[in-house]
Amino acid sequence: MEFRQLGQSGLRVPVLSFGTATFGGGNEFFKAWGSTQVDEAKQMVNLCLDAGVNLFDTANVYSHGTAEEILGKALNGLRDKVMISTKATFKMGDDPNDYGSSRFQLVKQCEASLRRLQTDHIDIYHMHGFDANTPVEETLKTLDTLVHSGKIRYIACSNFSGWHLMKSLSVSERYGWSKYVAHQAYYSLLSREFEWELMPLGIDQHIGTIVWSPLSGGQLTGKFRRNQPLPETSRVKQQGTHEPAREPEFLYGIIDTLDQVAAETGKTVAQVSLNWLLQRPTIDNIIIGARNEEQLKQNLGAVGWNLTTDQVKRLDAASDTAPIYPYWHQRLNPEFNTAPELY
């Protein structure tokens, strides 16, 4: 297993982490992801550790805390061998203060996550989304206090826009508070908007990227085929995804190229999709999920080898999309809007 430095922090993380949104199946949305219970979760944890994956990602909102509870039980006796990432911000109850990134909510949710995970600290604590109703200073001061208390080791964010992240970094620098070391972002061959602003920001500010849904809700696994019905067990079919719809022919064009590269490498379509991400700037970690052990084993096979530059370029060409404003305009002036070096 390859390890990379997480952003500009001193923390080294495996390039793959295991995501636990499949744990619990607490409502119809999460049932479409999976309903893994404790015994199977323990087996998956052991498979990950055998492969060198020692970072486990969860969130308080996954099945309303059940995923954290199952992960905590699955890691019983293993806490000194693993790292845990969890998140807060999204709604956890009907009280007006049961959502957001206020001091009131973050302290409450951090304590609740610690109890469910059966641990005294969280290694990476994410703001699951940007809370525009709470002053950035309040959120970051609270997180800095939690770091100094020892309850959190590092802070990160997720699903921020460029200005959300840049403003947060500026506030942290101004007051000398802990800053976000990573951004957990949606990125895949099917959805490359991350490259327009968030990737250049990550390069400039040394922010590591942790990728969620690297297979776009299962659409890049090779199970979605032209002129065939959607797989009955897919998250897309069961409406267990909030990812944007794409033109079918665009997806199938990418799959055609993935099929070619998979045949050349002797790997699966999913493994090629994941390995492509590992060649991109700022990507320090990819969260892989699995409904069962077989899916997990296949995803773990995405590391230990690399696509050639020619194969990466062919996949880039197949998945390229025209950017929206102002990014298309910036591309007209490459002399002072340098794009990330991809090769």
Mind explaining what this structure looks like?
- Helix content is 37%, strand content 15%.
- The chain is built from twelve helices and ten strands.
- Strand 5, helix 4 and strand 6 form a beta-alpha-beta unit.
- The relative contact order is 0.13.
Could you provide a short overview of the structure?
With 343 residues, the chain is an alpha/beta fold. The chain is built from twelve helices and ten strands.
Proportion in β-strands: 5-15%
Low-confidence stretches: none
Helix-strand pattern: EEEHHEHEHEHEHEHEHHEHHH
Oligomer: single chain
Task: Give the number of helices.
Answer: 12
Global outline: globular
Major sheet: 8 strands, parallel, barrel
State mean pLDDT (0 to 100 scale): 93
- E-strand count: 10
Distance between the termini: 22 Å
Alpha-beta classification:
alpha/beta
Helix percentage range? 25-40%
Major sheet: arrangement of strands = 3-4-5-6-7-8-9-10
Taking Cα atoms only, what radius of gyration do you get, to the nearest Å? Answer: 20 Å
Give the SSE layout.
Elements: E1 3-5, E2 12-14, E3 16-19, H1 28-31, H2 38-50, E4 55-57, H3 66-74, E5 83-88, H4 103-117, E6 122-127, H5 136-148, E7 152-158, H6 162-175, E8 180-186, H7 198-205, E9 208-212, H8 248-265, H9 269-278, E10 283-288, H10 293-300, H11 309-319, H12 327-330
Helix pairs in contact: 2-3, 2-10, 3-4, 5-6, 8-9, 8-11
Task: Describe this protein with a few key phrases.
eight-stranded parallel beta barrel, 15% strand, alpha/beta, globular, 12 helices, 343 residues, single chain
